[in-house]
Design a protein that fits this description.
2 domains
């Protein structure tokens, strides 16, 4: 099931994008499953899939031709997923430190802050490539599932999942240069929305 033939691995080592796409098509769902089982979060799992395959590409020249490529991807996906869980726990702990009284009944200052967050998020979404923007907006505004988005746009759910993961990655990258408190709030806000 998870076996990649020796020739494909050799082609991958040589830098063949075609071989890389074959491996991605064969194993990305497995990587997604491993990550989702650990994180219980589809967006974190999608992000892990992207990061795992970036690491695979970076390490392609060192791959063992005789080895099972799935084992490499499994280990990397498990490690990245656990790292994301730890990171999310740290973010939640930081978020829990915020004065809860302002969260229960938002003050005028909190409402302004929330509007600024929403505006910054809207601007960041508007800067995304068209396909990513469309998928994010359908998910966010109409609460459509990946399957429903795929049907509406005439795409595969795999493509929708990839665009969503890339869009979230792009949003995080754009927003990371914000004030650290604002960035943390935006990340938590994005995770809540998606």
């Amino acid at each position: 099931m998870h076996l990649v033939d020796r020739e494909t691995i050799q082609d991958l080592q040589s830098g063949s994008l075609r071989a890389f796409e074959q491996v991605y098509d064969m194993l990305s769902n497995g990587v997604y499953s491993v990550s989702f089982n650990l994180t219980q979060d589809q967006f974190l799992a999608e992000e892990v899939v992207q990061e795992v395959f970036v690491k695979l590409w970076a390490a392609r020249e060192k791959l063992n031709i005789e080895g099972n490529l799935w084992v490499f991807l499994y280990v990397v996906s498990k490690r990245l997923s656990l790292n994301k869980i730890r990171s999310l726990k740290r973010q939640r702990l930081a978020y829990d430190g915020i004065d809860e009284s302002t969260m229960i009944t938002p003050s005028a200052e909190q409402e302004i802050f929330n509007k600024e967050l929403e505006l910054l998020l809207e601007r960041s979404i508007a800067d995304l490539p068209k396909q990513q923007r469309s998928i994010i907006e359908l998910s966010r505004n109409e609460q459509l599932t990946h399957q429903e988005i795929a049907e509406r746009l005439g795409l595969s759910t795999h493509t929708v999942r990839n665009h969503m993961a890339q869009a979230l990655k792009n949003l995080r990258r754009k927003l990371q240069h914000s004030d650290p408190k604002l960035y943390l709030a935006l990340i938590l806000y994005i995770n809540k929305l998606y």
